[in-house]
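Observation: inputs received (chain + pyridoxal-5'-phosphate).
Thought: call the complex predictor directly.
Action: predict_structure
Action Input:
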Amino acid sequence: MAEKIEKKIPLTKKQIQELIKKYPSTFYVYDEKAIRANARKMYRAFAWMPGFKNYFAVKALPNPFIMKILKDEGMGADCSSLPELLLAEEVDITGEEIMFTSNDTPIEEFEKAKELGAVINLDDINHIPFLEKTAGLPELICFRYNPGPARVGNAIIGDPKEAKYGFTKSQLFEGYRMLKESGVKRFGLHTMVASNELKEEYFVETAKMLFELVVEIKEKLGIQIEFINLGGGIGIPYKPDQSPIDLDVISKGIKEEYQNIIIKNGIKELKIVMECGRFITGPYGYLVSKVRHLKHIYKDYVGIDACMANLMRPALYGSYHHITVVGKEKANPTHKYDVTGSLCENNDKFAIDRMLPEIERGDIIVIHDTGAHGHAMGFNYNGKLRSAELLIREDGSIVEIRRAETKDDYFATLNFKKLKAFEP
Ligand SMILES: *Cc1c(COP(=O)(O)O)cnc(C)c1O
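Observation:
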């Protein structure tokens, strides 16, 4: 296990106050320097892996400025929808730098993925004839494997046999045989069985499972798998008492399995890739908010100017996100609060029964570890608008990488002229 890390903010109170003057609260801030350092750490830890690449899961933080930074660090893009493919194209991530891992996929998306030369990762055996008849089979195809009862999952992704994703084992063999007969020449193998997983062994076991499959596919079908994709799912320590995952332990474990299974069985070198999102940007994003009201009824409430439309994870999964009251970092956590937003939903709470220093109106609250699956999951229920996203550059300057939504954005799909003429 790696050392625990203290939950710090890469800005001073004064800097945040200045920012709030320019970009009214609430907003997200991301830390470029920390994102780059983390990306480099990952590439160093996995440097022995042939052709190692992380395809950043775009859904975690679908901001093209961030994608451009990650491309600069050698990452590709893992896309699962047409807009995500278009974002990749916009930042010149094309060809096999794109992994297209979708499910229940419409034709247009396969067509765009094929046009961009993306690696197409099929979720279902029935997509083989579907693709053949529509976009056409590409020269390289990957399958998503669902091990079902062979593996246990975790809370976010659930039990693999209850998960909608992927091929069963027998479908996998049938699928590769079909592709081979159709003239496909290059093959990949993918799985993703965990999300926000903090146990290193989990990723080693996943690699072992895929290496064994690679050998079996070679023996039974004479097919050489060109790469395995271990999926995303490397977790981050949301709670202060959790430790970050140790990439070196994963790396060493996978290396042993690679030698024992791939090398020993005389299989040709194969690439090992991943598609992590959360691990790449999660800890380096902060949701900055101001305390609007304090309320004391049966419990004590802190009402802030962010709500679950800005950050849905606590309401959706009951997730813990650490909270700092800016300027009160050293103060004793003497008060127990529920920290809430303004949505008319009682689960609009960022924290329940959280011990914090005494809070006053106007205090600045920072919600940690919101750099992935944060802004991205935003929505407009109750007429709430999504916030701006800011980036702290390596030289300390701040760039707005997405403006806040306005009421005009919210009304953009309505036609008020047509409404005037509309007779009820
Ligand atoms: C969501 C997702 C990821 C990224 O998951 P993280 O937990 O952010 O690493 C990767 N691959 C697929 C197919 C996904 O659905």
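Thought: report the result.
Final Answer: The longest strand covers residues 285-296. The chain has two domains: 32-281, 283-411.
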